[in-house]
Design a protein that fits this description.
This protein is an alpha+beta fold. The chain has one domain. The protein is 52% helix and 12% strand. It contains 17 helices and 9 strands. Strands 1-2-3-5-4 form a 5-stranded antiparallel beta sheet, sandwiched between helices. It has a two-stranded antiparallel ribbon with strand order 6-9. A two-stranded antiparallel sheet has the order 7-8. InterPro entries: CHK_kinase-like, EcKL, Kinase-like_dom_sf. This is CHK kinase-like domain-containing protein.
């Protein structure tokens, strides 16, 4: 299903299903068939408004549709990606809500966009959400690094989010197993894909080249293993062997976070945030989520305050855990968070070499990159130089990835 008429039919079908869930009997659908490209690599987005003809109120929807190109679907595990995300919104979120009600939680977790409906038909997967841009949430420019205010809010938000599943696991272990057993380990799956591995190794090579032999000799020597054994180390970093695991966000780069500000004109005093795209949801260590967002969006000034941010995270985690009668230091000891960071944060570091490069290319080139992938035919080989035709700030890339690697060395995590 890829023609314009087929797409319209699919969109109208899920929108009509949404109107039933909103209990609308008379309504008008305004459908924009121009897909929004360039911001998401695992789907196209459409905007729809539905007017209730009886009350004159309008509902704004954001619809995420899976790619249809066979090679792109195979290379990016699209079947499993959408199975994960639909399961998250249709099963995990309702289970979280029920758990919060059972525990009489005073402030339920509200940093997830409202979900309406979905279709899991292979090749035509689609998910309908509330369009939160209409409530003032915006996507920051992807090349921007985080400041202290945003970093604190993100660590605090993840602390609350992770605590939900840790506590559910503690009080309802069978329910936790029901919610996590069906999840596909997408990052491990990516770690077996030729295209992903070629791009990862190329980015790690570029990162190695960003290190200065005269200043970073010891660091350079430590880093060589990531280039030489990139697949093995990445897969190892995905495989958490500890006991402190919960349900993660999974895909934590900046394009999957939206923020609302007190003054939207100058984007100051961030009020709240929403987490988007739970397609890579998995049960694992919180360090995977935290190191992923921190190293793909942070800077040296923030890296130097890592332990302070982990304190903020753990305080938020502990607040929720204590409210529902759990011992936070039993569920996730603060010291273990730092110890697991040293063992598993190279997951985020390795991804940061890729995402830093992606974030520094223009939206226009992002679209070209997706279109180039869409046009690939069966048998076409991915080349590590394929990315070089797209423009990005190479000097800024080198500065950013060098800061990350130096920091990893300084905290003995390299």
């Amino acid at each position: 299903m890829s023609g314009a008429n087929d797409v319209e039919e699919l969109l109208r079908s899920v929108v009509t299903d949404t109107t039933k869930k909103l209990n609308l009997s008379k309504f008008t659908i305004d459908l924009n068939l121009n897909a929004l490209k360039g911001d998401g690599f695992l789907g196209e987005f459409y905007k729809v408004s539905v007017k209730d003809d009886e009350s004159n109120s309008t509902y704004y929807l954001a619809i995420k549709k899976a790619p249809v190109v066979k090679k792109w679907r195979e290379e990016n595990s699209i079947d499993m990606v959408y199975q994960n995300e639909i399961f998250f919104y249709s099963e995990i979120v309702p289970a979280f809500r029920q758990f919060e009600q059972e525990q009489h939680v005073s402030k339920p977790f509200d940093s997830i966009a409202r979900y309406f409906t979905s279709s899991s038909q292979i090749g035509s997967e689609i998910i309908v959400f509330e369009d939160i841009t209409k409530k003032g949430y915006i996507l920051r420019e992807k090349d921007l690094l985080l400041d202290d205010e945003h970093a604190k809010l993100i660590f605090k938000t993840y602390g609350h989010y992770h605590a939900l599943s840790f506590c559910l696991k503690n009080k309802k272990p069978e329910e936790f197993a029901r919610l996590t057993t069906p999840l596909h380990p997408i990052w491990k799956n990516f770690g077996e894909k030729e295209g992903f591995l070629i791009f990862l190794k190329a980015c790690l090579k570029d990162t190695q080249d960003a290190l200065k032999p005269d200043e970073d000799g010891v660091v350079l020597e430590k880093f060589r293993k990531y280039v030489d054994n990139s697949k093995e180390i990445f897969l190892e970093s995905c495989d958490y062997k500890g006991q402190y695991s919960g349900i993660l966000h999974g895909d934590c780069w900046s394009n999957n976070m939206m923020f609302k500000y007190q003054n939207p004109e100058i984007l100051t005093e961030v009020e709240s945030m929403k987490l988007l795209d739970f397609q890579l949801v998995v049960a694992s260590t919180p360090v995977h989520d935290l190191s992923y967002f921190f190293y793909t969006s942070g800077c040296k000034k923030l890296f130097d305050k890592l332990e302070e941010y982990l304190d903020i995270y753990h305080e938020s985690f502990s607040k929720f855990a204590s409210e529902v009668g759990c011992d936070p230091n039993e569920l996730l000891p603060r010291q273990m968070l730092s110890e697991d960071w040293k063992k598993y944060s190279h997951f985020g570091m390795m991804l940061s070499t890729m995402l830093t490069k992606v974030k520094l290319i223009s939206k226009e080139d992002s679209i070209k990159m997706i279109e180039a992938a869409d046009s690939q035919k069966e048998g076409d080989k991915v080349n590590e130089n394929d990315f070089d035709e797209f423009n990005f700030d190479r000097a800024l890339f080198k500065q950013r990835v060098r800061d990350i690697v130096i920091h990893m060395h300084e905290i003995d995590a390299l």
